[in-house]
Amino acid sequence: MKRIAFFMPFQGCGRRCVYCDQRTITGAGDASLSLENVAKTLASRDEAVELCFFGGSFARQSRKKMVAYLETIHLAPAGSKITFSSYPGDFVGSEGAERIELLKGYPIATIELGVPSLDSGVLRACGRDDDIEEIVSAICALREAGFHLGIQIMIGLPGQVYGSALADLQQLAKLKGRERWDLRIYPCLVLQNTELQGLYEGGLFSPLPLEEAVLEAGELLLEAEKLCFTVVRVGLLESASLKKSVVAGPYHPAFGELAYAEKTARRLCSETPQGPWEIPEKTLSQLLGHRAGGLKRMAALSSLSLDETKKRIKRTDRENKLHPM
To answer: I want to staple 207 with a disulfide (CB 3.0 to 4.6 A). Which of 113, 181, 249, 300 is the partner?
Structure first.
C-alpha cells in the first residue's frame, strides 16, 4: 500500500525535547498542516493508501482537530488506512481511554509511539513529560484495544550509556509478546536552535562519535531481528535542511546503510566465527559499500586479516552457485 506522509511539526507537543527541531527534521516549515491540502491529495488517488501523520503528537491535539484529520480518510479510496505518531502519555488515564475509544472508529494501520528511552534519568534529561509507567501503561492499553504499534527509540541521548538502548529493546520485546511491531532507530544529533546545542557548546553534553553510533545501531538491528521487530527506518531522513542544521553528533547521509552493514557483519561472524561464509550478492554489496566498512568489521570480529577474510567469502548468485570473491 502506497504511503502518503504529512508532517505536523510540534503540533500537540506539550513541550520541546532538548534534542528536537521537527521543522528542520521534516523540512515542513512553520505552517500548520492544511486539511484542504490533505483532502486534495487524497482525492487524487485511485488506489488505497496509508495516510501518515508524523511529527508532533497527533493524539494530543484538541479532539475537534484530531477528528478533522481522521475524517479525511473517508476521502481516500476504499481500504485506505491511517498511521500517526504520538507521545505514549496520550493514551493513559481517562483522557487516554477516551482517545482510544475514538480511534477504534477509524481504520488505523499503526500507532507509532515516541519512546526514546526506558531509563527515567534519560527521559528527564531529554525534557520528556512522560515516564516509564505511563509508557508501559499506554502500550498495554493500545495492545488490548487491538492496535498495531510502532516504536521510535534513540541512541546517544543525554545521560544514556552504551547498552541502555539494547536493554530498552529487550524490555519492549517482553511487552509485545508474539506481535511484530514496527521499529525506528534514530541517533541523537545536536541540531541548531535546540536546548541540546546549548548543552553541547557549554561542555555539558558529548554526542556519540559516528563510529560508536554505527556499532550500537548495528547491535540493535541484530537484536531487533532476533526479537521479531520490523525495522522501518534507521537514521533520520536525509534532507538539505537537516544537513545544514547539524552542529555535532553521528551524522552521515547513509547512516542506515552503515548500521545494516555492521549488523550483517555481526550476524555472519556470530554464526560462523572465522568462516567460510557463503554470502548472497546483494548482502556482499552491502558489506563492500562505504569503503568496505562491513568487510573490515568482519575482519575485526573474526580476528582475521582483511585479505584472509576475503579469501573465506564465497558469493552466491541467484542460482545459489558459489564463486570465489
So the answer is: 249
Q: How many CB atoms lie within 10 A of CB 195?
A: 16
Helices (H), 2-115: 22-26, 35-43, 63-71, 93-103
Query: Residue 105's CB: how many other CB atoms inside 10 A?
Result: 9
3-state secondary structure at position 215: helix
**Cell numbers at 108, concatenated:** 488505523
- Separation of alpha carbons 124 and 132, rounded Å: 11
137: amino acid identity, one letter: S
The residue whose grid cell reads 531509563 is 119
Nearest alpha carbon to residue 297 among 251, 264, 249, 248: 264
Instruction: Return the axis-axis angle of helices 255-271 and 210-226, rounded to nearest 10°.
Output: 60
The whole model's pTM is what?
0.91
- Quick one: pLDDT band at residue 9, thresholds 50, 70, 90? confident
Cα 302 to Cα 297: distance, rounded to the nearest angstrom? 8
**pLDDT band for position 240 (cuts 50, 70, 90):** confident
The secondary structure of 253-316 as a DSSP string is TTHHHHHHHHHHHHHHHHHSTT--EEEEHHHHHHHHHHHHHHHHHHHHHHT--HHHHHHTEEEE
Convert the pLDDT of each residue in 43-76 to its tens digit: 889 999 999 999 888 999 999 999 999 999 999 9
